[in-house]
Amino acid sequence: MRIGILGTGTLAAALGEGWARAGHEVAIGGRSQANAEKLAERLGHEVLAVTPREAAAGRDAVLLAVSWDGVGDMLALAGASGGTLEGTPLIDPTNAVAHGVGVLLTGESESMAGCIAGLAPGARVVKAFHLFPAAQWTSPPAGDTDPVTVAMCGDDRAALEVVSALVRDVGGTPAVIGGMDRARQLEEAAGFVIGLAFAGFDPNSAVPRVPSPTAAN
Ligand SMILES: NC(=O)c1ccc[n+]([C@@H]2O[C@H](COP(=O)([O-])OP(=O)(O)OC[C@H]3O[C@@H](n4cnc5c(N)ncnc54)[C@H](OP(=O)(O)O)[C@@H]3O)[C@@H](O)[C@H]2O)c1
What we know:
By secondary structure, this protein is an alpha/beta fold. Helices cover 33% and strands 17% of the residues. It has helices spanning 10-21, 33-43, 52-56, 71-77, 112-119, 157-169, 183-198; strands at 2-6, 25-29, 48-49, 61-64, 89-92, 124-127, 149-154, 173-178. 43% of the residues are buried. NADP nicotinamide-adenine-dinucleotide phosphate binds at residues 7-12, 30-32, 35, 65-68, 70, 73-74, 93-95, 130, 133-134.
């Protein structure tokens, strides 16, 4: 696939590395061209440094790997309101949560994924990759551990299939829980995990091991 990444930080680096290693063409665009070039060089695998607009246009999938409060600026740089992302699977991994507490900072019934869909007309938004630390995708656990489940949601079936493939490419198991109306719930789940982790508890120990009746994996 031809993948665009908007952002040059920790998550951009981790997923960029994973997808490039899996054989995809990865193009990185940041608000700082110098940072995009530094990251592309560090990742190797012929990763490209491009402008945000080039990272957005004509891609098979785009990852919006920016801080939640930079989403509007980055989508503007990418030309989203003019339709550069129209028809493109747009992955939203953002966590708009109060640092160390996990309280959502979006309006009461809003989701970041919904806001992003509003700022990027025609984009096929998929909420995904927001629950695991970036290091999950660069140092996957040892071979005998079960793959992690990446819960995601979105309204476009084809986009969900594209993102599911990208989850598998970095060693995860995709789990589509529903449409965009589930995005707020997925974002709350991240707030719950982040809040527990900062309070000194292992989030894994706070959810029951419930056997799945359909055992997807
Ligand atoms: N890191 C993780 O483990 C992890 C895991 C799951 C989800 N996430 C989510 O993924 C997103 C990226 O996280 P990260 O850890 O990669 O963050 P990061 O390392 O702090 O990088 C943030 C990126 O956002 C860009 N940015 C910030 N404000 C901007 C603005 N106003 N306009 C344009 N670009 C702007 C930064 O650009 P500059 O470099 O120019 O400042 C940088 O490229 C966040 O929403 C985070 O909640 C992160």
